[in-house]
């Protein structure tokens, strides 16, 4: 996977080099006009480049344009069979595709759910909203195939949860 990204970057650099060689006077003028990029400009240009790269790659095209390193690693782990997608159904019937390692525990799944929400809130511009996960887990269970996932240290596969399994939130009764 990493070699594919490197190959695409080299290909883009080669194309740019060829274009520069065919139009040298244009690039000399541009180089004189551009000051060094500040951090924000560099990040924006890099995000644009990364977005183009992701859209063009069949393995990465499912990722959002503002992808994080963790999301790329998760996607690579999925492709290599080291991770699985657990579909978590919320109370409003929205299904969340949560990626966890094959040997993940219930606690790992909860952490991945928290991370998923945090990323989506930041992408939607609601990053300043706070979710009390202690409250969420105090009021709700994760539920799979007739059983509550009560033990955080238990492996998901011990509950029978594998790739593409669907876990739901249910309210705890007082």
Automatic annotation (TrEMBL):
Record region (Disordered): 1-33
BP-aspect Gene Ontology terms: mRNA splicing, via spliceosome
Organism domain of life: Eukaryota
Protein name, entry field: Ubiquitin-like domain-containing protein
GO cellular component: U12-type spliceosomal complex
Comp. bias regions, Basic and acidic residues: 1-22
Pfam families: Ubiquitin_4
Domain Ubiquitin-like residues, every copy: 84-174
Compositional bias per record (Polar residues), positions renumbered to this chain: 23-33
Listed CDD domains: Ubl_SNRNP25 (cd17058)
């Amino acid at each position: 996977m990493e070699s594919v990204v490197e190959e695409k970057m080299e290909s883009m650099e080669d194309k740019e080099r060829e274009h520069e060689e065919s139009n040298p006077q244009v690039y000399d003028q541009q180089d004189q006009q551009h000051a060094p990029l500040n951090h924000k400009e560099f990040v924006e240009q890099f995000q644009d480049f990364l977005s183009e790269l992701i859209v063009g790659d069949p393995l990465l095209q499912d990722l959002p344009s503002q992808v994080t390193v963790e999301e790329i690693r998760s996607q690579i782990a999925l492709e290599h069979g080291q991770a699985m997608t657990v579909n978590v159904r919320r109370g409003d019937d929205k299904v969340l595709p949560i990626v966890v390692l094959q040997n993940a525990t219930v606690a790992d799944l909860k952490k991945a759910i928290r991370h998923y929400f945090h990323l989506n809130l930041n992408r939607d511009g609601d990053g300043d909203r706070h979710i009390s996960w202690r409250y969420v887990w105090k009021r709700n269970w994760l539920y799979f195939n007739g059983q509550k996932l009560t033990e955080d240290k238990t492996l998901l596969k011990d509950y029978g949860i594998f790739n593409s399994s669907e876990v739901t939130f249910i309210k705890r009764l007082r």
